[in-house]
Known about the structure:
38% of the residues lie in helices and 16% in strands. It is an alpha+beta fold. Strands 1-2-11-15-5-6-13-14 form an 8-stranded antiparallel sheet. Strands 24, 25, 30, 32, 33 and 34 form a 6-stranded mixed sheet that branches.
Amino acid sequence: ARSASSPAHRKPEAAPQLPDPDDPEAPRPGGTSQPMKFGVVFGGMLVSLRVSGLLGTGDPADAVAGGFMRTSLPVPCTVPLAISVGDQPDLGANIFELDGTLKFAALTPKKAGKCRKFYELMCVDNMVMVQRTQMCGRETISRLKRPLPGLREDPWEVCLDDPDQASLSLNVSLVDLVWGTPYQSPISGCVRVAPASPALQEAFQWPTLIQAPPGPLREEIAMTAVKEATRARGGCVTFERPQDRAKRGQDFRRNMGSWVASTRREQITRAGLLQDNYLPASWSTVSSVQSWLGFWRQLLFLGMGAGGNRTAYFDALAKANCGRPSTFIYGTHVWTFDEVAAEVTNPRQQRGYTTGTVPQTPTCFRSNMVLFVSTGTLQHRLSRQLYDEAGMTTMHQGRLSAVTAEVTPEAPPKAVIVQEVAKLVFEKMLGTRITQEQAEEAAGYVDYGAMCFFGEWVEKWKVLNAGKVVEKRDYIKDIVARSPFGQRIAALLSEPRYEALLNITSIDDQLTHIADGTSFAGLLGTSDMTEKCINQQFADPFHVTLFRRDPQRYLYETMRYDGAVTDITSLLPKETRMPLEGQMTTLARGTPQQLNLGQANRDPNVFRNPERFDPDRPDLMESLSWNGRLKDVIARDYERAPRFCPGHHLSVRVAEAVCEHFTRNLQPGVEKSTDTTTTEAQDSQDELQNADADYLETEVSFEFQKHCRDETVSIAASSGHWHTATARYRAQFELPNRRWNRVVAWLKSKTQQGACTSEFRLECPKADRWRDRHAAIVEYKSCCVGDDCVVPELPGDELEGSDAGQVRSTVLEGDKEWRLCSDKARGESLYTAVDLDQGNGGFAGFAAGAEIVGLQQGDKAGCMTAAVVAKVTALTDAYRQCPAWLKLGLAGVFKANEWSAMMLGEQNSVLGKFFSSHSDEQEAALRWAELRAFDFDPKLFDAYTASMYGLLVHKSLREYRVGLLPATERMGLPTLRRPLNKIRVYEAVVPSEDIDRFDNTSIGELTDTTRSCVFLVTRTYNIKDDVDEDAQGKGLNSWSAVKPAYMSKADFIQSFFEPYRNAAGEKVYPEVKVDYGQFFKTRGDMWADGLEYHLAFRAIGTHRTMKLPTPRSHGGETVVYHSNMLGFGTDALKRRDPAFSRWGGEMGFSAEGMPLMVKLPSGDEVWKHTASAEEWQYAKFAWRATLINGVTLVDHLWFCHFIVANDMAIAARETLPPHHPLRRISAMFTWGTPQVNEAAVHQLAGARALLHRMTPFEDFGAVSKAAVASILPIWTYCDAFINQTTYDALPKLLRESPFYVDGRDFYNVLSGFIDEFFDAFEMEWCTADGHVRDEHVVAFLDAYPKAVNGPDGRQVNLMELWLGIVGESMTSKWQKYRCDGLRKGMKVLYFIVTGLHRHMGHVADLMRDPELTSPSWLEGQRSGQPRQALQAALIAATTGYTNPKLGKNSWGFMFEGMEEASRIQKATANFEANLDNLKKVIDNRNLGRKIPYFDMHPDFVDCSVAV
């Protein structure tokens, strides 16, 4: 056994004779503070454990040296702990606070019958303990508990000596310290636990990190911090001392370690020389001996340390410095995708006569070759134009000649491959067929020309056979010059338009360049790709399967995984200062930088599981193997890939043809399992990956994050010609969410040798713990031999998850499509196992069991496809997809703003200048003159509030220009029906795209990536409440510190909105309809009791005011009515800071409606007749604030937006054809719903978003659940408007409320319109007995979420039961729903999203004054704090956009071209006339009301919730 302090590649120490660490009763040597080291035999394998300082003396005199604690004192639970993975190339770490028990690792044998061990940290008597639990089978046989040693240099660790015998796994999320991504690599080294060093805490920004809630958000902050620290340090965050950089080589196993270590030492030395001596102009000054040694060291490293594999060589160099630039010969090496891609696609990329950072030599290339010419220059543009015009754009087209080389049982020699590649490349590119002899001669270039990469170096040190290189170059040039392509080049160059190019190069130069390019890229590159394609298939039969499935994607993945061109060289365009090997280094303009395409193609920030060879990967088109993103190279996009390889198309075709030829006799196979663990081992993984795993963010429930139920899969059948692009008839079967593990197709074949049946199942296979699961089509195959054999049946549903008969699995991720076609020549027949609805072209579709055949005999074929057509993305996952530059850039903006505000004043801060620049000069001057004392004052504005103020006021509200446009210019007729992509946050799932017209947009993502990511990035900023005593003492977020004495709080908040108008001329904060202060403020900040009467009986709270069954009396006062908002006062909804008061309050009213009593969350009752004036005012404020904000959160946001409007919008767009009458009217009443709801999940529903920050709650996921639980039954909201009996039963005081009086009139007008509309289509939609028979309407009703059991056990929801939608029986499709219930449902749903939504959601007047209401307040204070008040005002302003009003528009345009058009236009005209009459009625009523009521007034009611 080796000591745990010794890396695996060192000579093992003898195991000391110490007590068995597994025996808790074994005697321990006392009085020692030395680490105790154990070599443990674990199930036949050697595992190293070291536990330091178990029994220390506890003597305070223990020395402290080198910044590390040299003591064995126990570690207090309050100390941040670092859990890390080391002693291996892949490093991982994270910092944790120990709160309770933390399971962090497990050790699992790979042989059956062995025992497992689990490791966890726990806090016992304020001391960190490490507990190891040993389990055999399902039985726990021992537990061993030890204190965590207080030594950072001698941590507790468990290590693997032999990964083939055991696996070491994690149950905590670590950050990959190399790439700044979630740590995913298998563990071959050690897992360590120790107190986090100050340097590591700084790297992880621990003070910031600890404030984030546990889960993906904290992980994202940690990853961003690590990336920033890695960039700043120019290397791994574990490099705390200079010697750590060279010691990094010890983490690489076997012979690789010594090579990495020696290279690291050289790189550190070279970093200093690069600045002092290695300027491009003085390359010759470098010591010859030093250059010679460095050159040979790198060649030996590549040949001996990396086994000749360039990818392994560069992988080691990249990981050794954690992906940061390191020195490479005369320049630097760049590794990460973002940095490499930015330079590869740079339209002004600087080039020089350099490759591999080494000067080139004329022996290999001429200096004016386009390879060495900067991008965008005249020569570069004209050269590429010349090559394209000469035929490079089309040279891949047409048939290829047959490959003639002999096919043998073994892989062909490299020379044979190169010769066959040469024949095809020369034929297609040059238009010349070469002989076998010429091919052999030209192919010889590969043997000598490859070393030209190192140019002057290899020539100087006699490694390059210069004579042979020149000979082969001249030979190939002669072929080019005599070829049709060469002659076209010469002819084109003689034309006037290429005169400028001939002034720089000659015809001889250009022919030489083409010859060199054909040799170096065409032969070398294509041969390398082809050789790898062939050798991989000879080595692994599964690669035969992969290649034949999709040859092109196979080759693309081969080049991503181990490219032919691993890197390219550019020059720094200007003097650059950067951290290099731990020191700030100034690099001269023109310094070479090596852009490593190979490592960029393995960057896990871009590529999922980059170490896995996977041609089906969804991110394949991002690879950079051909000098640009693959998708841009394929498109030959000069704008996005200005230096793309012009021979890409031909190279891939040639490689495919040659590879297919030499592998045609190989037998395909299945994938070898990489998981050799037993069922017990898998059980241990499952125990570590419980559904409640701590690392998951509460805002995404585990079942949705880890299962495919959030994907919608389309199964389609096609019939048509196999080869040509003639029309195909398509029938679709859309698999709704939650229906997995079902058969979708069969492929049966019958030949003379036997018969086979393949069954294709739609499944949700397991994925690794860091990734979501995705739908897959899995093939199971069963065969028999003989003419009359009977194919055995495949197992039933239990088949999922087993490998019995499994052949292959196609994961439907990204744009990946499963495709299966029958081949009659092979005796194949294809059958669908699902019903396929009618497709286009009048095709009738296929019933389950039908054969999918071509339309005619011959080579016509039938095919089936499957693809994910819609999916749900968690909000946190959406953030992960945001580009790193945006995340880092925004963080830099706000840091710069803090600095500029402090140094230059708020008016000259970065944000101040940016936002003020959007107003005219006079307005800006006035603005700063009035408000410079407090504008962007850091005492008021934290980074988040400043960013939201700028984005919402200056980039949204002020730019809004369409509010006054008529509906005809903002809305349009539906044109599409399809499943929608969606985004999820907590319980809300809303569309992230729309297919209906919204203003100037119609189809696509609702928010562009940059804008969406800006909102998502701001969520990562720390929540700064600044309400504690210390912050208030410093004047942070304090009225006295930020508000001028002459201004009221309401005026102060409004001053941030008042100067601005939007592009249509409207105020950005909605105009005042009701000035509550004018009506109800008596003196100072006192409010008359009439305010509470008004809120409960005449305004926003009316629908939640109830008459008590039994009046309550107290001291002569009697409570008859009450409004109970105590639901949010529960202790379960924890506050972020105890200074905040809890939400909650129940107010009791007299028979006349005047407030008498308030019950607070504490249970205390405050009665007006016994309380002091101050106590009464505070109690009323607590109830008011909870009522207004509770109604806004529960009834407005969750009920109206996320449930009723959202479900209606989704169901209509996904199930109803565009021409359907129900789709047309739904388009009117759901207009803009996806847009507003998508914005709401960003700003109102997400954790650490605007609503979360302005409220006092700690866990916003718990708040969301409480909000959903607080929603009233739908009939409580609506029955009094529909049912006369219910209305008559209301107490007179409520019955006379404007909410019910005006609301009933509004409902009746809307009801009349729906009746006329429904009558026009009732015969078409309904059966004679009143059931819905229209299949699209049935599908629409089916789409609603189900909640409770209905008739025959069918799942229906409470809304359907109350509406009377539920039909007689589920046994018949045409008896599921009733038409009278549908009619009533349309009335109710449209009323909710119009009049009721206006009543619940218009809060701008209420939110103007933080003394009237606030989403949070301090205990005992009767107003919100200024920061939270400003945040609340931002929400109030952005929910006040002007959108189409029902009473201000004509609506006939929404129904043009429909069946029954004349009847619908008449109904619409009647609707508009009735709305006009209702306006007059309400206007007359408001004349007699003390406070007018507009929430049911047609001129104020929007057509949908789109505000």
